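User: I'm putting together notes for a lab meeting next week and I want to include a structural view of one of the chains we've been expressing. I don't have a solved structure, so I'd like a prediction I can at least talk through. The sequence is below, exactly as it appears in our construct file.
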Amino acid sequence: MKGSTIHHLNSGIIILSTVVAYLVPFEMFLLAYAVLGPLHYLTEIGWLHKKNYYTKGKYDFIILGIICSIMVFLNFNPPKNGYMILADLLAFALLISFALVYIKDWLYRIAIFVLAIITIGFLNNLPSYFIWVAILLPTIIHVFIFTFLFMFYGVLKEKSWPGLISIIILIICSATFFIYQPENMTYHVSDYVQRSYSVFKELNFRLIQLFNLGQLNNVNEVFTTHAGFVIMRFIAFAYTYHYLNWFSKTSVIKWHQVPKRTMIITIVVWLGSVALYAFEYNIGLKVLLYLSFLHVFLEFPLNVVSFTGIGKELKSLTKGS
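Assistant: Thanks for the context. Below is the predicted structure for the 321-residue chain, given as structure tokens.
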């Protein structure tokens, strides 16, 4: 599929996701997370593996995998001093990814690892550190901000007008959720949906506070208030588009080049994951927790490449002008 065609397809996906998010945001999120999510994790990790995870060393991904394993273990077995360690592990993985991407010498790498630990020590004193890193980084920052930056980097490299248009549409549609807030589009969220979504409701609560959408008395009001529906539409849109954007990149995934054995294993694991969600959503969440976090951790080096790549492309554009 041609690059311009993919960008036009992306624009259509953005608009469609926006419309559906307005109508049934909670159900849209749960369906996308259960059906599209696992396939996204599996295919992206496979693609990153072929790219050596954008790191200098062949086995650097093991470092990120170990950090992820520790974090997931502590999530199920929280330490006595609380969950702050989860934010520290996420921040550490992201910071050391700069070294994994650009530095091969282990002496310099260790120096940066130590510097990362010192930096995290200072960050611990910030009042919103835990919220931004433990709650927002692996969720809305990963699916929305990092996706936007990856798209922007690609458009800058391609110098593509259709790509730029798709980014403008993404910005407009995202802003629409906060500008156009119809009061008559709230509805009763079923007990099943509330129970299935319960693990995510802290995200909604914090985003409502961040965007100053209202003052909730308790976290369960995300299911019943106008502010709860406004932020849920944005979350449902961000996650659904994050997944669909990935699957639209046929030239990146190259489905036709995936070995048959790998494809069969991927499909079997994916169908098994969907079956778990269908049987009991919260069981699916627990079983798939490691895989969902692993793809976030393994994507950190790619995020670093996007950050620095945007800077380089913008610098070259200013020089050219």
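A couple of points you could mention at the meeting. The radius of gyration is 20 Å. The mean pLDDT is 94.

User: Perfect, that's what I needed.
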